[in-house]
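User: I'm curious whether this sequence folds into something compact or stays loose and floppy. Could you predict its structure so I can see for myself?
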Amino acid sequence: MLIIFDLDDTLIDTSGAITPYKLRKCLEGFVAAGLQLGDFETHLQQLIQINEEASGSKEALREFLLRQGGSSTLLSAALQEMTRPLPAGFVVPTTPHAKEILKICSQKHRVALVTGGHPPFQMEKLEKAGIDRSFFSKIAIPEDSIKKPFYEALLREFSIRPQEVVVCGDRIAMDLAPAHALGCQTVHMRWGRGKKLATEQWVTHSIVELSELTRII
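Assistant: Here's the prediction. I'll summarize afterward.
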């Protein structure tokens, strides 16, 4: 069996640790660039709330600027901040039991990581979370977050049938729909944005923490 994991809000708690820090830095950048705001902490909470309802941080930052009457030119600098290296002492927490489950899975099955985003930043997250790269037979990082070609490549590389593949991620459209289209089994990790997404009927399993994978695999 091949088990493919997403990274953000599947193996690591991105929404609980990294996103609030990065949104603060973006807001500081807006202010430094001349955006006129009142109380900083009040507006930070507003930005965090917008982000919780948005499909992604880019959309949240754009919506915040629109509400504040800020120039759209501020957005590009904010998006660069979202992928800048984290501070030296910054610790990225995993989701519960992530390392334990990776160890169990890698002992009996092939394990791969397919995570969308800026490759150096994604690898930094993995390192700061203390996740050993040796758990993974393959790591792929599509910058455009389009994962289907990478799933197809893994099927070919490992000469494995889709029915023998399990894909686990928090975002249904990005992580699971491409896997379902190929005939793979899908596991919806209800963490971060995934908590608020209604699980589609075609999703094979829905879990709230990775320890539940032991009953699935």
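Summary: DSSP finds nine helices and six strands in the chain. The mean pLDDT is 94.
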